Amino acid sequence: MAVLVLADHDGSAVTQPTRSAVAAASKLGDVTVLVLGPRAAAESATKVAGVAKVLHTEDALYTNGLAEPLAALLVSMASEYSHLLAPASAAGKNVMPRVAALLDVQVISDIAGVVDADTFVRPIYAGNALATVKSADPKKVITVRAASFDPAAAEGGSAAVEAAPKGEDPGLSSFLGAEIVKSERPELTAAKIVISGGRAMGSSENFHIIESVADKLGAAVGASRAAVDAGYAPNDHQVGQTGKIVAPELYIAVGISGAIQHLAGMKDSKVIVAINKDEEAPIFSVADYGLVGDLFKVMPEFEAELAKK
Amino acid sequence: MPARGAGGNINSTQETAEAMKLLVPVKRVVDYNVKVRVKADGTGVETANVKMSMNPFDEIAVEEAVRLKEKGAATEIIAVSAGPTACQEQIRTALAMGADRGILIEHDGILEPLAVAKLLKAVIAKESPDLVILGKQAIDDDMNATGQMLAALLGWPQGTYASKVEPADGGIKVTREVDGGLERLQLKLPAIVTTDLRLNEPRYASLPNIMKARKKPIETLKPADLGVDVSPRLTVLKVEEPPKRQAGKKVGSVQELVEKLRNEAKVI
Question: How does it assemble (chain A) (predicted)?
Fold first, then answer.
């Protein structure tokens, strides 16, 4: 039986976490991707390696990702699929449990591994333990931790696009507006390099020190929960178990002590650098390279050194 | 408040002062300060003799309910917990924070989000709340599911990951934390809201309020009383520790750091 992946996209292409979900789905069956939005995003999905079919609609009902109509649509399509997956993004985590309950199955959230068609590995207790769970449900509804699956290649596929079915509007909620920050920097969960600041940054103005280095490196900017709670960085910058889970090639933690819940969000990064003036900070216990020093002195030097050569 | 299920004909006036009845589910979990240990036999994590507390996101949910009541937007707050008898402690905490009464759905053994959602649906059928506020996820199983599943079973709208909740136009306006920023939704009532970290900072219960909470009523029910089958759908085959990361080396200078990143790690 085929497997359905609900895509996230940025208006022109499906996101990297979506391609990670495709990679997970490919272990389970022939992959159909559902794209709700502009045609260009659906076209991008046809090229993703391992995608057999793309279903597409530009129906305005789904433009803002309201959970109620979206869940109704997925449920109406579910009979043709053994598994329904989505990346564990804000959108995926919002809708998939709703879909699961409507199908009377237990959602399997944030999987980090596929053992077989019924069995999955998922982190629990903020990533301090990994549980292997086997589902007895006839159909599986799953969200996928993108950092745990190498994304399917963006090019190489040649799937056909078909029209997605039409769904009903339950009319329970309406979209009022959004404040989405458009950034030139890469998306946190897709960036090759992430540089994050902690409470030691001291103010939102001081985050410029980090942003400036990020721009030199082509990096995304993240933050610890402490920095977000203090108002130094916006909420969607938060890296950690309750924020974004990232696994870039290089993660640079600046003025971050390394609370368990932060480590849960970044410890799968390939190379970790910690810069902190407290040499006892727990972040050093997971760092490949640690530099003890005052970030306000170190970061300008770091930026200057990057500019050399 | 309009009758539940009255869908379209909600008064769209400023008279949101018509107060709501609130239901707040609270979960008993290993305290967030405890470093959890995986059991040697791989069946789970050690919970014997470990400090247990209310799930932190549920504390935010209770706080939000109490604030709505203090503003005059709510009349009554019911705290509900499902699990072993000891969940009474977490219900008492909610009562000390300002909830009016409690309901314990007593059950020993695993309760998955789908089962909890079915239990809550049955309680809601009896209590008819206008708004249910839940934590967005529990810090033990990290499922992030009960609120959405409950909304589905009830056919109610959901406002997940809320950083702001305001009664508005006969319904509620919810500001949500999403990838890339914030979004605002208008929900019809009755509705489900799940809390994110920035919604509020929960209060500590005062000693007088802790004493007062002892006198507030807690009703005890069993899943069978509610006609709900709570059999788990997932079997835990094993629980293991994640691979440990080795601490690396300290570098002495920024020059050395950049040199290592360029030539040793080759990541810049």
Answer: Heterodimer of an alpha and a beta subunit.
**What CATH fold (topology level) applies to the domain B20-263?**
Rossmann fold (3.40.50)
**Which CATH number applies to A2-163?**
3.40.50.620
- CA gap A156, B238 in Å, rounded: 37
CA distance B217 to chain A (A): 31
pTM, to two decimals: 0.92
In chain A, CATH 3.40.50.620 covers 2-163
B51 sits in which H/E element: none
Which of A136, A173, A241 shows the shortest C-beta gap to B185?
A173
Find the farthest-apart pair of alpha carbons in chain B and give their distance in angstroms, rounded: 69
Domain with CATH 3.40.50.1220 in chain A: 188-307
Give residues with Cβ within 8 angstroms of A205, minimum separation 6: none
B267 near A CB under 8 A:
yes
Residues with Cβ < 8 Å from A98, sequence gap 6 or more? A67, A68, A71, B148, B149, B151, B152, B158
pLDDT digits (tens, 9 = 90+) for A134-191: 999 999 999 999 989 999 999 999 999 999 999 999 999 999 999 988 888 998 988 9
Q: Which of A9, A169, A221, A242 to mutate to test the interface with B (most CBs of B within 10 A)?
A: A242
For residue A272, the SS3 value is strand
pLDDT in tens, A7-35: 999 999 999 999 999 999 999 999 999 99
The ipTM is: 0.92
B183 at A interface, C-beta within 8 A: yes
Residues of B in contact with A220 (CB under 8 A): none
CATH no. of A188-307: 3.40.50.1220
Nearest to B117 by CA among B220, B200, B27: B27
